[in-house]
Amino acid sequence: MRILITNDDGINAPGLKVLEAIAAEVAGPDGEVWTVAPAFEQSGVGHCISYVHPTMIAELAPRRYAAEGTPADCVLAGLYDVLSDSRPDLVLSGVNKGNNAAENVLYSGTIGGAMEAALQGLPAIALSQYYGPANAHLDNPFEAAANHGAAVVRALVDQGHWDKADYRIFYNVNFPPAPAADVRGRKVTAQGFRTDTGFGMAPHTAPNGRRFLWITGGPQHIPTEPGTDAHANLEGYISITPLRADLTAHEALDDLKAALE
Q: Has 229 been labeled as part of a binding site?
C-alpha cells in the first residue's frame, strides 16, 4: 500500500511522527509512506488553498517533503507533483495536537487535508488526539493515538463505507484524552456541537501602541449530545465520524421548494 500523509501542525510536529509510525504499520513492509506536510503550522486554516500565490516545496529526505502552504495544498502537491507518476492508495492527515470534534471540524486544517483528498477521489482519514488532564502530562500525550491508530485505520480501510459519489465520504477519527490503557473502545458517531462555547476575539494593545486582535477559544471539555463525537471522546472512546464536503441542508430542500418555487 502507498500512503500519503500530511498534517496542519507542521513538518516538525510530534503528532506527524506518530502518524508516520501508524502509516508504516498499515502500509506494511512492502508498502510506501510519503510525507508532504506544511513547512510551518497551519492550524485553523480549514480547507483553504493558496490560490493567489505559489507554494514552494522542498525535499527534506527520501519520501519526505515540506511545502509552504496549507494541508490541502500539501495534498495537491503530493498528488500532482511528488506522486504524479502513481497516486497513493490512502491519504492520512494528522495526528493533530488537540481534538477536531464538534464545531472544530469546520475550522480544522487536519480535516481540510482529508477533505481535499476525498474531493480528489481518494480514501482519506483525519486523525486527532484529544488533550485533557489525564493525558496532557504523559511522556507521550499521543499515547492513545499511537497505540490504537493503526488498528482503527486498518478497520476503516477494510470495513469502512467507501463510495464513489461526487462528494465522497471521508472519516474523522478522534482519540480520547486518556492513556492508551484506558481507551474503552470505538464508537461511530455524528458530529456534535458544544453549546455555550465557541471562538471569539479579544483586543490587545502592543507596547508600541498598535492594536491587535487575538482569536480566543472556548472550553473543550463540554460534552456534546450522546451519540456524537466529543461526548464519546470524553467518555473514553475513540470516535469515528463519516463526513462529506457537501454542505447542502438536504432536509430543507422540499419545504423550501414548496415555499419559493
A: no
Residues whose CB is less than 8 angstroms from the CB of residue 249 and which lie 6 or more positions away in sequence, other chains included: none
Q: Is 233 annotated as a binding residue?
A: no
Please, which pLDDT band fits residue 166 given cuts at 50, 70 and 90? Answer: very high
| pLDDT for position 196 | 82
H helices of the chain, where?
14-27, 71-77, 109-119, 143-159, 229-234, 253-260
State yes or no: 43 annotated in a binding site.
yes
Buried b (16+ CB within 10 A) or exposed e, 122-142: bbbbbbbbbbeebbeeeeebb
Is 96 annotated to bind ligand?
Answer: yes
Is the overall model pTM greater than 0.85, yes or no?
A: yes
Domains of the chain, each with CATH number or no CATH? 2-193+222-260 (3.40.1210.10)
Q: pLDDT by residue (tens digit) across 193-221? A: 999 888 999 999 999 999 999 999 989 99
Q: What is the largest CA-CA distance in the chain?
A: 60
